[in-house]
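Hi R.,

As promised, here are both runs. First protein below:
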Amino acid sequence: MGIMRCGPIDGPILTYSMEPERNAKSVFSREKLPMPLPLRLQPTSPVSLQTQIFEQVRAMILEGRLRPGERLPATRALSEQIGIARNTAALAYERLTAEGYIETRSSVGTFVSFQIPESALYTASQNGAPSARKPRRAVGSSLNPTFRCQAVVNPHRGRLIADFWVGRPDPDSFPRKTWAQLIVKRLRTAGSDLTEYRAQSGLFELRRAIADRLRPTRNIATNADEIIIVGGCQDGLNLVSRLMLGPGATAVVEQPCYQGAAFLFESFGANVVSVPVDDRGLDCSHLPNVRNAVAYVTPSHQYPLGVTLSLERRLELLAWAAETDSYILEDDYDSDFRFHGAPIAALKGLDRTGRVIYLGTFSKSLGAGLRLGYVVFPPEIVERARDMKTLMNNGQPWLEQATLADFMTSGGYERHVRRIRKLYLSRRNALLTALEKHFPGGEIIGDEAGMHLAWRLPSSFPPAREIEQRAIEAGVGVYTLTSGAAVGFDTSPENDRYLVLGFSSLTEREIAAGIARLAEALAPVTDRRRRPKRLVVEC
């Protein structure tokens, strides 16, 4: 098949269609030829051919006719298929790439992005393009309204030379040998533990071990009865949201904020109020004057910017919670990795009125695959939380809980944390050295702790989104606030001036090579912008 002319609609329409190739291999395989795009172009339309291509490809992506990861024809092939200039096709692709619908990899091809822009979930395409197709609903069903989901899995995983994805532990750091020994030991005496339901709040031995560790490391005086084991922090957030939020409730979040929290609160119908963050953390002067709110904060290492909430503001936040009869949800996701000085006491360690709910996780210290975390509740609401947990599920896997309890009580967990803290410090230093070498004078934020840092781009650099795309094309993963699982609730251009860089899963050599490759990829835009203007004198 080739170009086919249909009846005029304000002029002739150029169409092209073809059946997809049979028995194709993976979407990322070079052997699979891309499917020609079924475009319908109107050459006489006042809308440019470039815009028509953009709008129609975008619509196909939103409607699911082009699936994530599907390979698109090259610009040369597309121009030949529909009889247009190659530059027209290239400009349409550039716009689709800039807005996040497609991505291009050097020497590989162009693919539909795995994560489409957030706005596409709510808005139909403009200027006459078809809107996204609504899912079919069964008679009498009542599906929840459309909601947003956080970025959990890196869409570029396994396809990059150096990937600075955030929050990923070093896979080689997991204590496999010790863990295997502890599992075998538990299995030998498991008995009915493997076949019977256990307490929904979690294995008592593990809760006691967590309580014993929180006292010296986070200054939290608690006990096993106040702790509920959950499947990571997101599961803990879900538990608290079910317990405390509903339509019309107020959820206070940081600006910018972790997507998983903000989007979850939205899904419960809560009114999400964002409060700005500066170099001292949450600006408490902007806290809303409402009662019975829930404030979600990351005070030890703010996500994504990495700043630490000052003591003065911690006290202000606690006072606000007591005055407004509100609760504070403290997410302490990576506090084990503070590189200098004594660990900062948790916000809950300062709480004297029972207003702080504390979330901890083992996803960052051991691995997300274990799906183990915990929530420390104030005594007056822990029973209600335990009942709600029972409605959510029948508890976490016994074997993983038991193994972790043994790992902690034997001292193995503490030794493991000390070892990887030293490892991550070395990798952080390697990243700082590489950034200073290739991008001197840049502003680094949040490098005192954690597994990532934030890089505020110099004013001479292009926007973060453009840099991210250029880096991906060069095989290097660096991430904007949005693609790095954060969300901003204002439209300030400042949101596009930050990149987040995770360093925990890369070796020092990989870090150095990755930043060097990033500098090479950005040279055409950064060198040009840095170059001083020439003074021309006319004689």
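And here is the second one, sequence first, then its structure tokens:
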Amino acid sequence: MIEIYVFQKRKYRFLFGCLTLLFCVLACRLFYLMVISSEELSERARDVEQRERSIKAARGIIYDRNGVVLADNQPVCTISVIYSQVTEPEKVIKLLSEKLSMDEEEIRRKVEKVSSREKIKSNVPKETADEIREANLSGVKVDEDYRRYYPYGNLASKVLGFTGSDNQGILGLESRYDSVLKGTDGTILTLTDFQGIEIESAAEERVEPVQGDSLYLSLDYTMQSFAQQAAEKVLKEKQAKSVSVILMNPQNGEIYAMVNVPEYDLNEPYELLSVYESGEGSENDKLNNMWRNPLISDSYEPGSTFKIVTATAALEEGKVSLNDTFHCPGYKIVEDRKIRCHKTQGHGTETFKEGVMNSCNPVFMEIGARVGARTMLEYYKKLGLYEKTGVDLPGEAGSIMHKLENIGAVELATMSFGQSIQITPLQLLRAVSAVVNGGTLVTPHFAIRTEDSVTGEITELAYETKTGRVTEQTSETMRSLLEAVVSEGTGKNAQVEGYQVGGKTATSEKLPRGTGKYISSFLGFAPADHPEIMGLVLIDEPVGVYYGGTIAAPVMAEIFQNILPYLDNI
């Protein structure tokens, strides 16, 4: 009997222990669920009972250096329908077809599609969206949105770029600084039933979007406008394929203007300009050609503007002085090649200074030979011609240069006056800036600062510079020589009354040679003694007269006539 009692007692103790243990486990589990995991479980519950819709954030504003808005936002809306909530489908179809100018059958397919939410159309003007909202038809949803708007249409189109339907930057500065400009999207949370269908009468929970940061550019609206007007004028007069202009501060690399006409409409970027419709390739190929920025994405033979580099190398190395004399019979025999001067009858006897003023090919072939191929390439490297400029635009191309071992006498001769090598226009402008600014190689750029949309905090942007590329003495001599080109030489048509202008003309035959197609150009800067602005004009395939000094230099003069007084007053 005692044994049975003991056994029963042990059994009850065991059962009690098991129950106690179970209770503890359940209590711990309950504590874990109600305290430790409460937030996570609440989130899960909300996910089940709530549907999330995105509210697009407005992109940051793009300003020019003076606060002129170059890229803004327009409020638009997205129209959608919820199948389970549509009570009058025919009214919905008729209304949306009328207001959105869409085919009734297309809308019918979307309205009658069994789905939790079906988007009808995005980027709907706010006025139209308000009319749809006021109709108060069940199941029709109107959500606010933004689209990019460019107040000046085609101004600086190949610099600014544009955004896609998702408000993401696609080209140009919009793409390069997308992370700065894009902002943070908000959300709309709506309650749903057990089937996941939105409860129409339930209140919405909103998380407001945060606008992207603002971007300030070195681009100057006024200077860009002046340059674009001048480019469009000569494009029409010379029936050219295109005209490009860059204006830059040679002291710090800030780009004031970058023009590539014909420019496209940033508000309608997929509308092909007529000049591109007849181009080769698919529709996408034609669009890419229209959007392309040749000033940074295309290399070319610079021609006589490159003589600035050759002259600089020769002066730095002590291979030439201003009073050295040369003889130009109209050509120079190099090995088995007869390489002509642009003045076929020759310049006769001339000093080095006169050779620069006359843009005489035989003079530059001679001083190129004096410098030698190895040293010449060293100066190309010093002046940044073997590297990309680092400009803050996507799609920058590099240069095409001879390897040292492939440079013979003929190659060295043609290099000396800007043939048989290819660089981008911006590489040329950067190199010449170092020549005339005292020897500092700057980084060309557009963005100068950002502004936080929430705090207003300003962040100034900095760019790399490399000093000591050219001595101050050589820089001073080159400024004087290039001023003489404009005052007395081939660049006379670039003179601006009241200002000292320096510069160099060029006429480059396009590859392949023999097609009769040329690029006429002029590179100029002012004031000549301390340049504050440097410009490059390129006229691609002009009809008729094609000499740079005749047609490109006057364009730069016209631009400087407007811009130099403007610079004096800011």
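A quick note on the second one: The first helix runs from residue 2 to 36. Let me know what you think.

Best,
J.
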